[in-house]
Amino acid sequence: MKAAVLHEYDETLSRDELVRFEDVPEPRIESPTDVIVRIGGAGVCRTDLHVVEGIWRGHAHVTLPYIMGHENAGWIEEIGSAVTGVRPGDAVICHPLVTSGHCLACRRGDDMHAEDSRFPGINADGGYAQYLRSGARSLIRLPSTLSPKDVAPYTDAGLTAYRAAKKASRHLLPGEKAVVIGAGGLGHIGIQVLRALCAADIIVVDRSAASLELARQCGAHETVPADEHGVDRVLELTRGKGAEAVIDFVGEGTAVSQGLAMTRAGGSYYIVGYGGKVEIPTIDMITSEKTIVGNLVGTYAELVELMELADRGLVTLRTREYRLEDANQALKDLHHGRIHGRAVLIP
């Protein structure tokens, strides 16, 4: 089969060829619960850039060369002998983690902390290819209204945004304020999820005029440029108190300190993007009683919930399609901020 393969790390993301389009062996059924998925769409994520940079070397054990791609959807090609519930030809979306289902975390539905798991595209071959090996318990059948190439990025970008926005929505009352930092591939989904799950006023902060326009199209009530006056503008919109919830889809640069400054006393700051550091004096934590919440992708059940919102048209993805052989262009466009929404590779 054809695949876009990572052969070496590039800390500066400066090489013309970050991945190599080439022939590789097709994945095979290795376990009775395995499923081979013919890829209909593979999302291109900023985490993929971090993988290329080598940031994940100390967190995921892989041997190069290997295939990235952890946002996948397609059609069932082949099933293992113990697989029930799906059959060849079914359109499916793949939860990003493949788990055995045996550990206590799995039995509690806490997929992301499973003890026996693999993460295609992170620590195993992923979906930048024509075929992917996944597991039966990771698959969700798609309704006829949703096409694999249109929903693939929901498996990480959408699911991560949904998990954070869902957490925030449980504590947001009508008329309260929610700030979303970053209206890109994850942020534009988070805005729509907040609109679907709660009645808070949504303020979006981004440095890109195009992203702020996308935020307005997705339902933001107010948009604020992420410049030196951004925090003051948010405080002005929140009567000097800050927002009850701040969801940070950037997580690096000045976004972290500004996000905490935008969070009111007793409010919650949700970290989604990463790369930076949270630095706050302990006395400020005590006197402000702010809550800092980490977010790691999401559960299988949450992906089911998100697909329900997508099926109802309450959440839609803004995508830009690339051929699989153009994976390098997609990665470069993402790195240089030329994609508003999500990029999807189509084999």
Automatic annotation (TrEMBL):
Organismal lineage: Bacteria, Pseudomonadati, Pseudomonadota, Alphaproteobacteria, Acetobacterales
Listed cofactors: Zn(2+)
InterPro entries listed in its UniProt record: ADH-like_C (IPR013149), ADH-like_N (IPR013154), ADH_Zn_CS (IPR002328), ER (IPR020843), GroES-like_sf (IPR011032), NAD(P)-bd_dom_sf (IPR036291)
PANTHER family: ALCOHOL DEHYDROGENASE 1-RELATED, VACUOLAR PROTEIN SORTING-ASSOCIATED PROTEIN 11
Keywords carried by this UniProt record: Metal-binding, Oxidoreductase, Zinc
EC number: 1.1.1.1
Identification of the protein by name: alcohol dehydrogenase
Protein family (similarity comment): Belongs to the zinc-containing alcohol dehydrogenase family.
Pfam family for this entry, one: ADH_zinc_N
Residues making up the signal peptide according to the UniProt record: none
Positions of the Enoyl reductase (ER) domain: 14-345
